[in-house]
């Protein structure tokens, strides 16, 4: 296992991990509504809104859910509810132009119901093992550039964290202590200097790291993002936002869409791929069991079976959604398996996936 410093907003603690972050509560949502609604109105509105929120979290595709799913598509949402509760709330919400008291409705849906809805509409299902992302967040307000982190919080960073939780994104912020200050400068971050940013990000041991810079210009916000993947690939994202209140939401939606497209797959009865995976370093039953448990944890893997076992080398046949690249990207997020390319002269050179077991 590896240790890493996890900074989820303003909490600093150590946690051992062997996989990408596991997101809890994917199929659960909390909705705040005016308390003067009847119970029927309250639950009817809560179930539809909660279903939409959960569909966004499970798919990682707010762009598709918000643009293609209408209220009428969610008329069956009450039948998807596994359990719900109505709780008191101390928040005030707007209703008919007035601020009124509210109630909180907590809704948990059946996993199969949500998944089948997404499958029917050919929208990806993203599992609960998701890549952790370290975010270096900078703002330029015309008078200077500010870097946000644990020791230097900002309203935008807080909003990014809130929306990240809504989208099921494990977003972390740097401490911004003396180590960070000596490792990378604000100008290097603003300029997306890869070597300096990568070196400063190493101490946090997240799966990915990203630089987000926001320029407040006149009546709009210009946002430029770089996302750095384990393979060395760097993906740029750039957009302008007219409404200042939507900056954090759009940042999270863009990141969520990018990562879902990379690590999630659309499921369908006739759209799975059959792949061969060769593993070396499997010399005990315990190691083989760990590998099989790991395969079960990958959302893209529908099923697998053991094809052969000889002299510490195992071959599995894997039924997977999304093809070779998506499966390779998912495996690259942890240290259980390390790619072990085959020589062109190897009799097994036609096997598309070849790895060495590195788990403990």
UniProtKB/TrEMBL annotation:
Pfam short name (any one): DUF2066
Source taxon at top rank: Bacteria
InterPro entries for the chain: DUF2066 (IPR018642)
Designated name of the protein: DUF2066 domain-containing protein
Source organism of the structure: Marinomonas phaeophyticola
